[in-house]
Structures are given as structure tokens and as C-alpha cells.
TrEMBL record:
It is found in: Cytoplasm. Mg(2+) binds at D63, D102, E134. Catalyzes the reversible reaction in which hydroxymethyl group from 5,10-methylenetetrahydrofolate is transferred onto alpha-ketoisovalerate to form ketopantoate. Pathway: Cofactor biosynthesis; (R)-pantothenate biosynthesis; (R)-pantoate from 3-methyl-2-oxobutanoate: step 1/2. SUPFAM superfamilies: Phosphoenolpyruvate/pyruvate domain (SSF51621). It comes from Paeniglutamicibacter gangotriensis Lz1y. It catalyses: (6R)-5,10-methylene-5,6,7,8-tetrahydrofolate + 3-methyl-2-oxobutanoate + H2O = 2-dehydropantoate + (6S)-5,6,7,8-tetrahydrofolate. Its cofactor is Mg(2+). This is 3-methyl-2-oxobutanoate hydroxymethyltransferase.
Length: 284
């Protein structure tokens, strides 16, 4: 265990966030040494660049773009082609962070061959460094085939949003006897070659058991502090959404109020004739 658990995986250059590209072995080193890494979603170049410069180690091109960008009520409608577009945008803004992209619903379930083809498309056309796939031990053969094809895979267990209808809605997973099944899933996915296992909405004790049982690092979202990494949707983290946030979200800013205030001020100045003023105009 490291004496400095808050030390970054690779300290960025002070004030710039620049430095060597984060690789899989850096995340593994964090697990081995007891340090941590941070992960945020990103869907466009500008936010990716900001998070990259801030030192965030992993950027997730999440299928949550279906909700946060496209306005759908679930992640299910987003397509592989749309994920490629978001991936390209994020990759262009990330100079240091490892970029992981979700395999969207319907892009890997049909067959192992479909999973490999979809993952290769995200890497070839989207330029990402790894993919993330939801599902338990059933998908271990898919993970093994993708890894064999040269695609690093982050596994995602616990609450898996693509299976929300099968799971009965947004519910905590891995309680009671279900903890053993989750542990078995995690072990199977690690054995298949997953470089990381992400757990969503899982009791802290269950997540800690899974983390202790695995050699590879784990990432948590609503899974307590035992995991090596933590991930949040950036719009949640910066308070851009409206309504009640999930229990596991901490708001580090109230961006919705800031943006709304700025838009209202702009609207008012346009109507009042205060904008544009002389300083914003061109002379002869």
C-alpha cells in the first residue's frame, strides 16, 4: 500500500495537465500500489480538453450521451455510428487521458463476432483506446475474443443501464445472496482478459469484496470508496441537470445556475440594446 494514496497515477505537468499518455499499465500500477485514478464522461472536444488538462486519467465516451446530449429517457436508442461520432470528438481533445468508449445496446449481444466487429469499429473509426461492455459472466467469451483481437475491454457489472427493463428499473445490485453471483461475474470477466471491472450501484461491502478478489483495478459509481477508480457523468458532477441527483453524485459546481444566469443576462442586454456595445463593433 502506498504511503500517499492520493498521488496521481502519472502526475501531470503543474498547471497544464500535460504529460505521458495514460496506459493500461498505469491503471494497473495504481491498483498494485494502492493509489487512485479519476474517470469522467465526455462527449465533445471542448469538455474532453478541459478534463484532460485538469489531470483526469480516464475519459469515458458513455452511452449516457443518449440521455445527456440527445435527450432520450434511456441509453437504449443510441447507435454504434453515433458513438463513433462522439468518440472522435473526445479523442481529438484528449492528449493525455485514456479514452474508453461504451459499446451501445445492440452492438454486441447478437454474437461474439458482432462484439469484435463493433469494438474494432470504435477503435478504427473513433480512435478510442479501449471499449466498455455491460454484462456478467455470460459475456466472458465476448471479452476474450475482443482482447484476443487487440481491443482492451473494461467490464461493467452491477446495475447495467442497458438492462434496466430486465432489472426492474434503477435498483441497487449485489445485495444479499446476489453478492456471490456478482463476485463470480467479476472473476470470470477478469479471467477473460478485462483490464478493469466497473461496478455501478453496488453496496459498499460487496464492491470491497470484489475489489479484494481481483488482480485488475476496479472502478466505482455508487460503489463506495474501495475501488481504485471513480467515475461520474460530468453533467451530474458539475450540476448541469435539473431535479434530484442520484445518491452517489457529488456536485462540485452549480453549472446550471451559472449558465442560466449568463443566458438571461445576454437576453436582457440584447433586448435593452446594451449588447453589442462600441467595444464589440467594427469601425470604418
Amino acid at each position: 500500500m502506498s504511503a500517499h494514496p492520493s498521488t496521481p497515477v502519472i502526475p501531470p505537468t503543474p498547471g497544464t495537465g500535460s504529460g505521458p499518455r495514460i496506459r493500461l499499465h498505469h491503471l494497473q500500477k495504481a491498483k498494485d500500489e494502492g493509489t487512485k485514478f479519476a474517470m469522467l464522461t465526455a462527449y465533445d472536444t471542448m469538455m474532453a480538453s478541459i478534463f484532460d488538462a485538469a489531470g483526469i486519467e480516464v475519459l469515458l465516451v458513455g452511452d449516457s450521451a443518449a440521455n445527456t446530449v440527445m435527450g432520450y429517457s434511456s441509453t437504449l436508442p443510441i447507435t454504434l455510428e453515433e458513438m463513433v461520432v462522439f468518440a472522435k470528438s473526445v479523442v481529438s481533445g484528449a492528449k493525455r487521458a485514456l479514452v474508453v468508449c461504451d459499446l451501445p445496446f445492440g452492438s454486441y449481444e447478437v454474437s461474439i463476432e458482432q462484439a469484435v466487429a463493433s469494438a474494432v469499429k470504435l477503435m478504427k473509426e473513433g480512435g478510442v483506446h479501449a471499449v466498455k461492455m455491460e454484462g456478467g459472466a455470460y459475456y466472458a467469451p465476448h471479452v476474450r475474443a475482443m482482447v484476443a483481437a487487440g481491443v482492451p475491454v473494461m467490464a461493467h457489472i452491477g446495475f447495467t443501464p442497458q438492462a434496466e427493463h430486465a432489472l426492474g428499473g434503477y435498483r441497487v445490485q449485489g445485495r444479499g445472496d446476489a453478492a456471490e453471483a456478482m463476485l463470480a461475474d467479476a472473476r470470470a470477466l477478469e479471467e477473460a482478459g478485462a483490464f478493469t471491472v466497473l461496478m455501478e450501484m453496488v453496496p459498499t461491502d460487496t464492491a470491497a469484496r470484489v475489489d479484494a478478489a481481483l488482480h485488475v483495478p476496479t472502478v466505482g459509481i455508487g460503489a463506495g470508496g474501495a475501488t481504485t477508480g471513480q467515475v461520474l457523468v460530468w453533467q451530474d458532477m458539475l450540476g448541469l441537470g435539473e431535479g434530484k441527483s442520484p445518491r452517489f453524485v457529488k456536485k462540485y459546481a452549480d453549472l446550471r445556475s451559472v449558465v442560466a444566469g449568463a443566458a438571461a443576462a445576454y437576453h436582457r442586454e440584447v433586448l435593452d440594446g446594451a449588447f453589442p456595445s462600441a467595444e464589440h463593433e467594427f469601425g470604418q
